Amino acid sequence: MSHSLTQSLTTPLMGAIHRPDSDRPLPLEPVTCCVCGSDDAEPLAVGEDFEYRTSPDTFLAVQCRCCGLVYLNPRPAMTTLDRIYPLDYHAFDFSAERYGLIYRVRQRLEAKRLLSACQRLGPGARLLDVGCGDGFHLKLLRQFGRSDWQLEGVDMSDRAVALGRQQGLKLHQGTIQAVDLPAHQYDLAFMIATLEHVDDPAEVIQAVRRLLKPGGELVIVTDNTDTWDFRLFGHRHWGGYHFPRHWNLFNANTVGRLAMETDLEVVKIQTIVSPVNWVYSIHNYLVDWNAASWLVKQFSLESTLSLGFFTLFDQVFQAFGHGALLRVTLRRPFEN
Amino acid sequence: MSPTKPIAIIGGGPAGLTAAAFLQRHKVPFVLYEAGPKVAGLATSFHDDDGFTYDFGAHFINNRLAAALGVGAQCRTVKYYGESVHLNGKSYGYPLGLLQSPRYVLSGISSRLNPRIHKRQFRSAATWFRASYGSALANEVALPLLEAWSGVPAAELSAAVGSEKLQNSIAQTLKFRNIGRMTGRAVACGYSHEIPENSHMWHVYPDGGVGLLCRKIAEGLESQIRLSSPVEAVWVDNNQVQAVQVNGQELPVSGVISTAPCHILSRMMRGTDRLAALAQFRYRPMMFINLRLKGRGLLKDTVVWLPGKDFTTFRVTETPISMPWLAPVGKTLITVDIGCEKGDDLWSMDDEALGESCLKDLEPLIPDIRQRYQGCRVLRASCAYPVYLNTYEDVRQRWRQTTGVEGLYTVGRNGEFSHALMEDVYWRTQRKLRGILPSNRVMSESPGATPV
Description:
The structure holds two protein chains of two kinds. By secondary structure, chain A is of the alpha/beta class. Chain A contains eleven helices and 15 strands. Chain A is globular, with a radius of gyration of 19 Å. Helices cover 32% and strands 23% of the residues of chain B. In chain B, helix 1 (14-25) packs parallel to helix 16. At the A-B interface, strand 4, helix 6 and helix 8 of A face helix 2 of B.
């Protein structure tokens, strides 16, 4: 995001920028479980947009009594995406300039993780990043991967896509269901921090599946609800809720069931370390209790100390198989 | 259930509308019949020209229900809510303040330590309260309140009056109170049976009262709602609901979901006598006398319980202590609850005389109440609370399980003859309807359709 744009938005309110339309309620729509179709769900948490204060609404996270999926119900209508993803949304501007050391550390870490998923790829492999934002992961693959890989990305945001294209990336703007890409051509697809944002995960995965070669793989990274941060903060402040932008939140069971529903084989389900949900759980707690803004700032994506500390902290949980993120490797079967 | 004939829903209050919205989502045809000219009759708030708002009861809900209905943005946070008991000229915070009286504590502990308490079958509310709270607290506080509220001696009431109520531990009550104080939010304690409470649930006031909720639930259902259409009869054949009679017309239905008070439903039934015993179910009529007064914070707490025999009322509420917006600045509204019987002297008394009698009643609490008084407005509810009489307890227990008639279901406070609160009505109605649907799956949805 350009500097002048940040300046044009006015005074920060508890760590969030005040927006002219933040007093206007969002149109909210009831939904059912995207994994099993049931609408029988246990209310878990009432929350607000603690991070960006894009609306005055309160939101309800529920857990499906049939399959265990955690989802937002009711949730903002699709027409509100421009509002709930404001111009200063972090995914639009995860840059070295804004995030400094954190950017470089995350770059190294993510590059290592990405490449571990690419080990079996041969020369000329075709890769697709679904929900690529401005192309952060594609840039890493370009920098650290094989030079003959064909890298492409898809994102709904025209602004993010324009930013990525400026850096020479091949990006497609639109939803994965709508973009015109060749079927059965891709060796590997990524959905990193994307699945939880989409309205219909099964439909999105099916769209990706169609693009994969038989035997091609889809690597999904998403928030894990089978964690201690969820247990501790799940009644309101859990960072993974990211109210109201994370619409569906999974654990190993529900993501496995989604894979089955979409006819993909589960190659591996593992958890990986991330400090973000810990840090944002505390951030949200502090915001909710009207803590001083200097304190709130210590728990954000811009705080090296807390991110560093909770990276180490989450290692402990990771050792027991409860890391903050799920990493799921799915494969399109050969036979169809 | 037949796919062609609709289900008839009787009553357009929160429960009936919740049932309607549920059926709509599940693509089950239905028609909602409301006797009054608009939905949410009793749930509507009344406003006068001076800026006072009158509700049938304190109309706050909690933030969880508000979020579930998507009206969180139209609700105000209730920052404080408290209750106290005024007894023999002294005030005690409720419930913890009562623990400062050694007499109550000792009697409570001794009854709790009685090893037989867990095995006993309690014959009446009186024995239940004495065993659970101790004789001192039961005889001086709980039972007088219960009797004034229900209009019958506690020995004639079922033990379920107490045992079916949500029992929060003292530790949880303390925790919620303290978190409420720290966060400046009235954390809800003892308001939800269906879903566990936690310290992140607090009271909120929907702008426009519970009527706002009803209007929200009713969105998109308009074409299926028939106003000014009281259901006159429910026709049953071979113990299966067949039709309803509305405005003299017989309309075939596949089922009936009733929110009508049980004794009224009993009278509507044709072709079965299975609901005959329900005719004896009693609802306590209640009058809410709203006194307009100068000043604010005249009572010790939002709600003051008055177990003393010298009071006509058992409960007074100064809603603006919790919800300042219900009265204009510098003024307040005190609601005096008086249980009565329909048609008795109190019920028939004119509003001014009732106001006058309330002033007399409240003088011990507010000595200068007459100088502050600016008039009153009386709301009368003929079916305010179900009374669990022992004489029909076995019928009530069976009624909780089933209506005994195929295709006849009941929801809501009056329909179920239960003491359910707002949020419970919402979740419970959905749970009940889910149980009667042929499939748990939403018919319009088909996740995981065949992949390409």
